[in-house]
Design a protein that fits this description.
Helix content: 40-55%
Strand content: under 5%
Order of helices and strands: HHHHH
Radius of gyration: 17 Å
Largest sheet: none
Number of helices: 5
Structural class: mainly alpha
Shape: flat
Length: about 70
Amino acid sequence: MSKHQNDNRSNQLNPNNINYWKSRGYTQIPDHPFDVAKSFKKQWSKHELDNRANQLNPQHPAYWKSRGFL
């Protein structure tokens, strides 16, 4: 990844940067950006959390299946 690409990615992940908001459809930083940013967070179900944990655990078959080995 080039420096420009890396900087752009970092900016799009930083709520203090205008590129973060532009990548989410805003034209400017909102007056209360952290209240808006909180609304992006998804509430995960127990099943989704368990599935994610299993996919991150190399001792679980879901880890290998998610990487195309099973």
